Known about the structure:
Elements: E1 2-9, H1 11-15, H2 19-28, E2 32-39, H3 43-49, H4 59-66, E3 71-79, H5 81-89, H6 102-106, E4 115-117, H7 121-131
Antiparallel strand pairs: 1-3, 1-4, 2-3
Amino acid sequence: xxxxxxxxxxxxxxxxxxxxxxxxxxxxxxxxxxxxxxxxxxxxxxxxxxxxxxxxxxxxxxxxxxxxxxxxxxxxxxxxxxxxxxxxxxxxxxxxxxxxxxxxxxxxxxxxxxxxxxxxxxxxxxxxxxxxxxxxxxx
Length: 139
């Protein structure tokens, strides 16, 4: 069943100029990019996006990191897009990520792990609408 998921290429990956390589991995997986833009989040925008983690000890460092430089946000579409993209991303900690995953290849550490992806259908809908309106998506 076709579904959509949010992808964020995080500041560490954008800074190292590996955005194109990550997008190639995504497209090689058969996922279609239906919306994409580069943004530089403010602290408030990062806090809003990660509000679900507000009480977690890593919230401040995560939101500081996410507004430390530009990110590339995109909407991916395909059959089972959420699970397929999460598998392609690999484990949050790159030391535990499988070979051939984005995080194994590009992540620097557990925080600077290069990419974010939605973890479920409901989360994807909320996350996509945080960055995109319907007019910005094709297909």
